[in-house]
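#data-curation
PF: Archiving a pair of folding outputs for the training set. Convention for this channel: one message per protein, sequence first, structure tokens after, nothing in between. First:
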Amino acid sequence: MSTQARVLASIAMAVFLAGCASAPPAKVVRPKVINPIVMNPNNDMVGAADDVLFRALGLVGTPYRWGGNTPDSGFDCSGLISFVYRDAAGIALPRSTREMIVMRSPDVDQSHLQSGDLVFFATSGGSQVSHAGIYVGEGRFVHAPSSGGTVKLDYLNKPYWQKAYLNAKRVLQPGQLARNP
């Protein structure tokens, strides 16, 4: 085989192998639908709703921090929700709003919200969830709104939240929650 033929063969082999080594096209990853996990199965759901309400209200004023999930580190919206449910009700929820909105819990009409329900918003427009909070009653919800802010109590009937409102979920439903083995 001539030198020129060997060089061409080497180049062809390198191109072939490079094509095999390239990453596959990116897939659209859909969140896995899961059940909330009750870590304390003997918990009274009415009492748990009160505990969630008081724990959420007690965190008003905690600094916002993207990715934060404790009072010491600060909270983002899903970190706040996960912390409150785990701490006050013994329920492990998914960490992201995208996973929370598709979890196996009953959807709730906005006119039938109860304390402890999760409320979801598309703050960037469209129908993709980007924010969430915990409904505390009387048209109000607790949430960790944005960088530089703090956990706050807000009204659902504000035009901004009404425009962005997507859905609500009821996590505190006796008999419909997953149990830890």
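PF: Second:
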Amino acid sequence: MAYDFKKEQKQFYKPGKKPELIDVPKMTYIAVRGKGDPNQPDSEYKQAIQLLYGIAYTIKMSKKGTHKIKDYFDFVVPPLEGLWWQDGNAGIDYAHKEKFEFISMIRMPDFVTQDVLDWTIKETSEKKDGDFSKVKLITLEEGKCVQVMHVGSYDDEPATIEKMKDFAEQNGVEPDYSDERRHHEIYLSDPRRTKVENLKTIIRIPVK
């Protein structure tokens, strides 16, 4: 059976609809950085998603090729995630999506090292006749966060975030945004196949 992060580590992928405190350990990701309104045609965000999934599935399907990755085990490709921010704004201003900066990312098993990524970029670029060099390997240790399951439109997130901030205050913590700690979303639904009111998004904000 392929290892499924969502099933094996439910505390990170199945929060309730009420905010909760969580301590997030170090995790490995493939990532692409960009900026701009993610909803625009041919946006940097949409390009980043194509790059990430190309790399993720080349790593997963390497089991069928001749190149053997050290310590490889089969896995279900985890959901897309994103870190979001805007210069000069501690939180997120949804009225100015054109000012968004982001790191789009997909979690990877720990056997994915820089050497593995280097091979994968070369392999994927040749097979798909494209340039996948924008994909980087990062580790992220988020530490203490408030997280919640947001159900519905992305544009309705501000109300959910306010509830998260109220919960934080009631529990003696406060938002702690910085260059290392960002607004974090995990997308459990495919917006192309899911009604807007049913979209499931984990929202995670750093606190101290």
